[in-house]
UniProtKB/TrEMBL annotation:
Species whose genome carries this gene: Leptocylindrus danicus
Membrane spanning stretches: 214-233, 331-351
This protein's record includes keyword Membrane: yes
Alphabetical UniProt keywords: Membrane, Transmembrane, Transmembrane helix
This protein's name: Uncharacterized protein
Length: 366
C-alpha cells in the first residue's frame, strides 16, 4: 500500500517551459519503472499493473522532455507502449488518502451528465456537441469549494498531499468523462464511424445498445430462424430412415455411416469415392478452422477480449449487463445479440455438417 501512495504523491512533475514551443510551465505525469498504476484492460475494467519498462523518444533532439516532439510510453503488465494518458493512479491508494467522498461525487456527476445530455443531432446538448469535460470540471469546483465540504477541502489543499496528489485524484475521478469525450469526439481509439465498426455492427447489437426499435430485429430474427428450420425439415423428409425414426427404431450406426463414406446405388464407384473424400475434407476444414474461429468469436462477442472499437463497446455492454443497469429492451436486445452471434452460428455449422453427411451428391450441395 505504501508503494501505491508513493506513486500518487510523486507521479506529477512541473515541466520546464520552452520559450519557443511551450512558453508556460505545466504539470505532466512522470511514472517510473516499478510503479503500480491502473490501466483499462481488454474487458474494459481498470486493473492494477506494474510498470515493467519506460521508453522515451526525443524526435527533435532538443533534450526537452514533454514537448510535442518528445514521446514517453510504458510497458505495463502485458501491454506495450501505453501512454501516460491511458493510465491512472490506483483507486485503493487514493481512497486511503482521501476517503470515499470523491467517488460519491463521481456517481452524482455521472447522473448529472446523463440528465443533461441528449441524443438529438445539432442540439447544443447533443452527446457529440456538449462539453462534457467542461461541465464536470465546473461541478467539481462547485463541490470542492462548497462550505459544507470544508473538511475535505482542507485535506485536499494539505501540503503533504501536494500538487501531484491533487492531480492524481482529479485525473482518476474524471477519467470516465474523458472516455465519454473521446467517444463523442471520434478519438482514433473510439471512432464508431470507422469501416471496421460498420462491418461488425448488426441489428441485434443496435437493439442491445439502444433497447428500442424492435420491428426490424424481430423480422430478421424470424427469417434467420425459419430458413434453417425449413432446410432441415425438407432434407429430413427424404431420408429413407424417416419411418424408422418415427417408430423409434433408428440404427445410428447406419445414420452416421456417411461420415465415413457416401452410399448410393445410383452413383458410380469413382464418384462415390470423390464425394466421400470431399465430405472428409469439409469435416477437417471445420475441425481446424471453423471451430477455432467460432471459439475466438465467442470471446469477442461476450466482451472479454479485443481492442478495436466494436469489441471495446461490446465489453462495456457486458459490464453494464453484469451490474444489471440495463433496461428491459436493452436486456432483450443483448440476449438476442449474444445468442444469434454465438449459439445460432454454431447451429448453422452443425446443420451444414448434417447436410454434407446425409446428401448423396456432396459437390452439388457445396
Amino acid at each position: 500500500m505504501n508503494k501505491l501512495v508513493n506513486v500518487i504523491l510523486t507521479s506529477y512533475e512541473l515541466q520546464k517551459p520552452d520559450k519557443e514551443k511551450n512558453p508556460e510551465a505545466k504539470w505532466v505525469a512522470k511514472y517510473k519503472v516499478g510503479d503500480w498504476v491502473e490501466i483499462l484492460d481488454h474487458d474494459m475494467e481498470w486493473r492494477l499493473h506494474e510498470i515493467k519498462q519506460k521508453h522515451e523518444e526525443d524526435f527533435d533532439g532538443d533534450g526537452i522532455a514533454g514537448d510535442e516532439d518528445f514521446e514517453t510510453s510504458y510497458d505495463v503488465g502485458s501491454e506495450k507502449g501505453i501512454s501516460n494518458e491511458k493510465m491512472r493512479c490506483s483507486e485503493a491508494g487514493l481512497k486511503l488518502l482521501f476517503g470515499v467522498r470523491p467517488w460519491v461525487w463521481q456517481q452524482y456527476a455521472l447522473l448529472k451528465v446523463e440528465t443533461k445530455i441528449r441524443f438529438q443531432q445539432d442540439h447544443r446538448d447533443d452527446f457529440c456537441n456538449f462539453d462534457i469535460m467542461g461541465y464536470t470540471e465546473e461541478l467539481w469546483d462547485l463541490w470542492l469549494n462548497n462550505p459544507d465540504n470544508f473538511d475535505f477541502k482542507k485535506l485536499y489543499d494539505n501540503t503533504l498531499i501536494g500538487e501531484s496528489g491533487r492531480r492524481s485524484l482529479k485525473t482518476h475521478i474524471l477519467k470516465p468523462f474523458e472516455l465519454m469525450t473521446a467517444l463523442a469526439k471520434g478519438d482514433p481509439d473510439w471512432d464508431v464511424t470507422c469501416e471496421e465498426m460498420r462491418s461488425e455492427l448488426g441489428v441485434f447489437t443496435y437493439l442491445s445498445f439502444l433497447g428500442d426499435g424492435f420491428i426490424f430485429p424481430f423480422v430478421v430474427f424470424g427469417l434467420q430462424l425459419a430458413i434453417p428450420m425449413i432446410l432441415v425439415y425438407t432434407n429430413w423428409d427424404y431420408f429413407s430412415w424417416k419411418q424408422d425414426w418415427e417408430k423409434g427404431e433408428v440404427k445410428w450406426d447406419v445414420f452416421f455411416e456417411k461420415a465415413r463414406c457416401i452410399l448410393s446405388p445410383l452413383e458410380k464407384t469413382e464418384n462415390l469415392q470423390l464425394a466421400s473424400l470431399m465430405a472428409l475434407v469439409v469435416q477437417v476444414l471445420y475441425l481446424v478452422q471453423v471451430t477455432p474461429d467460432t471459439i475466438t468469436n465467442f470471446y469477442l462477442q461476450v466482451g472479454n477480449a479485443g481492442r478495436n472499437v466494436f469489441q471495446k463497446l461490446k465489453s462495456f455492454r457486458m459490464r453494464i449487463r453484469d451490474k444489471k443497469h440495463d433496461r428491459m429492451g436493452q436486456n432483450v436486445g443483448y440476449t438476442l445479440d449474444l445468442v444469434m452471434n454465438t449459439l445460432y452460428v454454431c447451429v448453422l455449422y452443425m446443420i451444414n455438417i448434417f447436410n454434407v453427411l446425409q446428401n448423396e451428391d456432396t459437390f452439388e450441395l457445396l
